[in-house]
Design brief:
Shape: globular
Number of strands: 30
Radius of gyration: 24 Å
Oligomer: single chain
CATH architecture of the largest domain: 3-Layer(aba) Sandwich
Strand order of the largest sheet: 12-11-8-6-7-14-15-23
Bound molecules: 5'-O-[(S)-ethoxy(hydroxy)phosphoryl]adenosine
Length: 633
């Protein structure tokens, strides 16, 4: 473990925090000394939030995989890097040591090279939660290719959008995947997507389920055939600290998902440092995050952060409720997991199945619990603490975003004070502020404001792929001189932060982000639809759910069938994960005279709170509100 990086007490945290604010360059420079660089930096930081320009460790050269793998071989060559637990508990699990993982990564890196992939090329990865996903990502990084992982629940259209935006040259996929009792034919989805992706010349298919999918001649090849006889040695490409490491698409309040870009040096330093301090793993510990690698949590805290620090990571293919709602706890006992990270949604869905499923497991090995992705409610927090942690494990609530690259606000292991529903204190190097409507910093305690950052940190996004202006407009233009997170938060008198949730048009369903515009665009592809407006509303398990108000040429005679058609549009444009829970047909939407949809009113209606809809008299058509209220679902 990177012992020298580890903060051991709350006092030490406070000292480190003060240092990181007084002299960020000394602070991060010293942390960066703990890694393997081929050449050191000329300057730790060069930045402004106006362009924005964010350069960390400029002039330094490295390859992140030498830090993830090679560096550990001497001391940890025979230590387990990865434990893979399959969807089906009766199937055998797989374990790889650091040495084995190193060989597998190098071998697949050589395959990619033979396929003509070179530094800077974009490779799209659409795989199940199997070790090959980690291997494929690291193989890209080994040769300097930029990976773009797409969660294996997105539709063909969503894949095509992402592949085309990144102009990916090669796609890595599998025949299919297991998720609980369901199976999904990934290769078929990729084939459909690639009909409209001219940049893709090659597809590598991992044989996961022996399904024998259709293989396209001169384009598709089998993973196992390619790696056969390939060398297990592959020299690491020399990368600049600010070269791209990966793109990950995420939803924002406007337009289609954007490709958040992370770079090699800063992301490495930040994910390792935050992992080490938030999870506080000891050398023999087994750490498990249940998040899918298709999202940022999987990138930073199943792949890079833990492996950079030499931890043993568990990776799970399945879902919490298969074959029964005790599966998480069974896996924890089976592999003696010490640190466990999951999302509030998973906890709430398991709570609904009752305590018996958790009480039949000992969970003795657990030392620390984590939660991430959405605000955790008091009830779920207490259930987690009592039934999973048996009141002996601290809970760290990790607030961060795809754009921040790593955890920003959180408890550190069991050394920080804990307060249910509060994420806690900022990590060293993180300088949050709460701004009011006017953009002034709120100093008082317990006042809600917009959560922003006033200083860069090494893990932050550098740009949005192919469109730097969009990055600037989305994150750096709302309040000049600040990074704008899109979240509302408040701070108590001790300085602990509580995240309230998104204040923009982003809906967080089961910890997954969707933009209202993105879902509306999907609904509007239906030829009968004239326009639509989508809002989030509170859901007891998912946190939020999607409510769609839809205007058709005329009110549908058969609403059930019309709803089915809309569902179909969303499934085909985005995927089942973005399905609206409620679809209400209306004859018009509440709009201002300038044509802006009044989402605030729709949100209230969706929440069932029509007592105070505010002044509707200035609307273009005030009567429409009454109609919508009357037919609300
Ligand atoms: C929300 C996931 C409350 C927040 C790591 C943020 C949270 C968005 C928390 C980012 C938390 C994430 N408490 N809300 N601990 N963690 N969020 O990009 O609204 O998938 O802006 O990154 O999730 O989601 P993303």
């Amino acid at each position: 473990m990177m012992k020298s990086l580890r903060i051991r007490s709350f006092e030490e945290y406070k000292e480190k925090y003060a240092l990181s604010v007084e002299n960020p360059e000394t602070f991060w420079g010293e942390i960066a000394e703990n890694f393997t660089w081929k050449e050191k930096w000329d300057q730790v930081l060069d930045w402004n939030f106006d362009e924005p320009k964010i350069n960390w460790f400029e002039g330094a050269k490295l390859n992140i995989t030498e830090n993830v793998l090679d560096r550990h071989l001497e001391k940890r060559g025979n230590k387990l890097a990865l434990i893979w637990e399959p969807n089906d508990p009766k199937q055998r699990f797989i374990r790889y040591t650091y040495r084995e993982l190193h060989e597998l990564v190098c071998q697949f890196a050589n395959v990619l090279k033979k396929k003509g992939v070179v530094k800077g090329d974009r490779v799209c990865i659409y795989l199940p939660m199997i070790p090959e996903l980690t291997i494929a990502m690291l193989a890209c990084a080994r040769i300097g290719a930029v990976h773009s992982v797409i969660f294996a629940g997105f539709s063909a259209n969503a894949i095509a959008d992402r592949v085309n935006d990144a102009q990916a040259k090669l796609v890595i996929t599998a025949d299919g995947l297991n998720r609980g009792a369901k199976q999904i034919p990934l290769k078929r989805v990729v084939d459909e997507a690639l009909e409209s992706c001219p940049s893709v010349k090659e597809v590598i298919v991992y044989d996961s389920l022996a399904w024998m999918p259709n293989m396209v001649a001169n384009r598709d090849s089998w993973w196992h055939e390619l790696v056969d006889n390939e060398s297990k040695v592959c020299e690491a490409e020399v990368m600049d600290a600010e070269d791209m490491l990966f793109i990950l698409y995420t939803s924002g309040s406007t337009g289609n998902p954007k490709g958040v870009v992370h770079t090699c040096g800063g992301y490495m330093v930040y994910t390792a440092y935050t992992f080490q301090n938030v999870y506080q793993c000891d050398e023999s510990d087994v750490y498990w995050s249940s998040a899918d690698i298709g999202w940022i949590t999987g990138h930073s805290y199943t792949v890079y952060g833990p492996l950079l620090t030499g931890a043993t990571v568990l990776m799970f293919e399945g879902v919490p409720t298969f074959p029964d709602p005790g599966r998480f706890w069974q896996v924890i006992d089976k592999h003696s997991v010490n640190q466990f990270l999951t999302a509030p949604t998973a906890l709430r869905s398991l709570m609904a199945h009752g305590e018996d499923h958790v009480l039949s497991y000992s969970l003795d090995s657990l030392k620390l619990l984590g939660t991430v992705g959405e605000p955790i409610n008091d009830e779920a927090w207490k259930w987690y603490h009592l039934h999973v942690g048996k009141e002996k494990c601290a809970i760290v609530d990790n607030w961060w975003q795809t754009e921040t690259g790593g955890i920003m606000i959180s408890g550190l292991g069991n050394i920080s004070p804990m307060k249910p529903t509060y994420a806690g204190f900022p990590l060293p190097g993180v300088q949050p502020v709460l701004l009011n409507q006017e953009g002034e910093e709120i100093q008082e305690a317990d006042v809600e404001g917009y959560l922003c950052m006033k200083f860069p940190w090494p893990g932050m996004l550098r740009t949005t792929y192919g469109d730097h202006e969009r990055c600037k407009a989305t994150y750096f233009s709302q309040y000049k001189g600040y990074y704008f997170s899109g979240d509302g938060a408040k701070r108590d008198k001790n300085g602990m932060y509580r995240i309230i949730g998104r204040i923009d048009d982003v809906i967080n369903v089961s910890g997954h982000r969707f933009g209202t515009a993105e879902i509306e665009n999907a609904i509007n592809t239906n030829s009968k639809v004239i326009e639509s407006a989508v809002v989030g509303f509170p859901h007891p398990v998912k946190g939020q759910s999607i409510y769609a108000f839809v205007v058709c040429e005329k009110l549908p005679e058969d609403p059930i069938q019309a709803r089915g058609a809309i569902v179909e549009s969303v499934v085909s444009q985005i995927g089942k994960i973005a399905l609206p829970e409620k679809i209400q047909f209306v004859t018009g939407l509440p709009k201002t005279r300038s044509g802006k949809i009044m989402r605030r009113i729709l949100r209230k209606i969706a929440e069932g709170d029509i007592s105070n809809l505010g002044d509707t008299s200035t609307l273009l058509d005030p009567l429409i509100v009454d109609e919508i209220v009357e037919s609300a679902l």
